[in-house]
Amino acid sequence: MQRIGIVTFPGSLDDHDCVRAVIRAGGEAVALWHGDSDLQNVDAIILPGGFSYGDALRCGSIARFAPLMTDVIDAAKQGMPILGICNGFQILCESHLLPGVLTRNAHLHYRTKDQALRFENTKTVWTANFVDQPYAVIPTKHGEGRYVADAAVLDDLEATGRVIARYINGNPNGSMRDIAGVCNEAGNVVGLMPHPEHAIDTLTGPSTDGLAFFTSILSATAGVAL
Amino acid sequence: MPRVVVDVLLKPEILDPQGQAIERALPRLGFAGVSDVRQGKHFELSVDDAVTNPEDVVRQLADNLLANPVIEDFTVTVVR
Question: Is residue A195 annotated as a catalytic residue, yes or no?
């Protein structure tokens, strides 16, 4: 069974929901601790949402220097699949594993809603199972989710298919070009502002659309053709 | 022990909704003729006398941590 590591930082909130989502998808969830330097032979890593270090300085800027992040960054560069959700996305941007930055919502309000998304890149190891269902509704909840990068970077992301998902039916935060998620050049590192781990069961979420992230990575790491 | 100041400000082309909110509040407070408000961060650090070239050291830590050069500019000033 594939081992999916979920990193807990001081202030992480959604690590347990990610654990549940991995188990629901049929994988083994492995708890990783920010202060360790041992990736425990996991096949992929999730940086969960929350408020690591209380969002001090800039969201994700302190977590980037956690001991485990040195190993995560090295592993990412060697092709390890990494998914950053919300605060995890912010950490990946601060780590320069993904381009751009997530800044204060344009309207300055913390926004919680079930967000409609369109998946535009279903070739990554994290998004492959959206190929037949590119429209999804996944909860979003953040105060600093406005994706910002300069025009050249945005043009390049679009030209190379690295915008993995966009907000549709309304942009919740003023994100440039309605960007909800991006990936790196190799496609193994993905960041997404909405929370797929909160959309795995209709008892607690608006849909089960989010489960596709977790089934995608389990298929990919099992070596099943995408 | 040198005291070093780092001021961090969003780059001019980056939207600053907090600065805009402050600007919108000013007329309500009776301040007329004030515009283009930008909100930033101000850091003060003491550097041990044993550290050679404190300004360069602080510039490096500002570039690595205090500012995100993707969206922010910063200045470093040794004040004493």
Answer: yes
Q: Which residues contact B4 (CB under 8 A, 6 or more apart)?
A: B44, B45, B46, B47, B54, B55, B58, B76, B77, B78, B79
- Cβ B17–A150 below 8 Å, yes or no? no
ipTM score here?
Answer: 0.89
- Under an 8 Å CB criterion, which residues of B touch A? 13-15, 17-18, 21, 65-66, 68, 70-71
Asked if residue A5 lies in contact with residue A88, where contact means CB atoms within 8 angstroms, the answer is no
**What distance in Å separates the CA atoms of residue B42 and residue B60, rounded to the nearest whole number?**
16
Element of type H or E holding A179: strand A179-183
Residue B70: how many other CB atoms lie within 10 Å: 18
Evaluate if pTM is beyond 0.90.
yes
Annotated catalytic residue, options A18, A59, A86, A93? A86
Number of neighbours of residue A78 by Cβ within 10 angstroms: 8
Q: pLDDT in tens for each of the 80 residues of chain B?
A: 999 999 999 999 999 999 999 999 999 999 999 999 999 999 999 999 999 999 999 999 999 999 999 999 999 999 98
d(CA B79, CA B42): 13
Residue B9 structure tokens: 């400000």
